[in-house]
Amino acid sequence: MSLKIWNRASGRIEEELIFGESAMRWLYENRIGQNLAQQILSRAWLSQLYGSYQNTSYSARGVPDFIRKFGIKVEEYEDRNYSSFNDFFIRKFKPGMRPIEAASEVMPAFAEGRYLAFEKTSLNSELPVKGAILNAGALLGSRPELAHFIGGPAFIARLCPVDYHRYHYPDDGKTLESFRLSGKLHSVNPIAFSYRGDILFTNERTVSILDTENFGKLAYIEVGAMCVGKIVQTHPAEKNFRRGDEKGYFLFGGSTVILLGEAGKWKPDSEILKQSLVGRETLVRLGEKIAQAQVQHGIS
Predict the structure, then answer these.
(1) Residue 112 domain boundaries
(2) Phi, psi dihedral angles at 271 (to 5 degrees)
């Protein structure tokens, strides 16, 4: 299975170069690998151990080869020496490199990655990977007070190891509540979805319920994954946030951020919807337009 994505910037369909593809295919397309992934490799302690190695100075030796193999545009990031691979992994863009869409009625991309869009979610919205689903209720831990997100619009932003791994707020607002849901740590690569269709709502995840100025209430969900050493929240939950503020970052590994909205409050960008309907993700830059508000809302 090759991964075809729509590159919005180039206007072309491109094939994704997968980090660790051979190992990923063995783990999720081979029966022995599947058992290993389920019983051992998806456990938190192993990802934490791997993450600890990525924090060592020795791991920094792998940075030049990684940059060369995946064509990382280092000129877009702050100029500095990296003390470890994780230090490189959470690199920041240079100021002004990713302008945030300022129009109040336009939702800017909250992460840089590969987006799928849903105009309306259901309890079991199908993903463009055989057997994979997005269960909006289970994502939120089946908490009955959050049922109003079922039936609303949604985004799934998949961050590959080659991507910028900080995530941001899409609007001004405040955090109403935040909680963690425990679970396994399977890979969030589409190769893994073909074996485990329930990954998005059984992996470990952090959920924040946001009340925003222009898009109503949002469920902002960071999904943990295999070899992701840690999900770090850098913005205090008790402090109001502004559009474009950094919310947090993932340490090493492929990761996913999911955004759920209330029905009728906003609509995903038509281009992203079009690509999603034919089973393709859209590569989106941080800060670009991804949705349009349907009505205006004030913070409650």
Answers:
(1) 1-300
(2) -65, -45
Q: Which amino acid is at 7?
A: N
Q: How many domains is the chain partitioned into structurally?
A: 1
Local structure of 57: helix, strand or coil: helix
The 3-state DSSP class for residue 73 equals coil
Least confident segment among 80-94, 145-159, 207-221, 282-296: 145-159
Cβ atoms within 10 Å, residue 202 = 18
Of 132, 129, 148, 130, nearest to 140 (Cα)? Answer: 148
Whole-structure pTM value: 0.84
Q: Dihedral of CA 187/188/192/193: which sign?
A: positive
What does the block give as tokens for 219? 């469920």
* Cβ count within 10 A of residue 9: 9
Burial class of residue 270 in the structure, from the number of CB atoms within 10 Å of its CB (0-12 exposed, 13-18 middle, 19+ buried): exposed
Provide the β-strand partners of residue 110: none
pLDDT of residue 172: 98
Residue with tokens 């995840």: 205
CA distance 273 to 295: 20
252-295 per-position pLDDT tens digit: 766 889 999 999 999 999 999 999 988 889 999 999 999 999 96
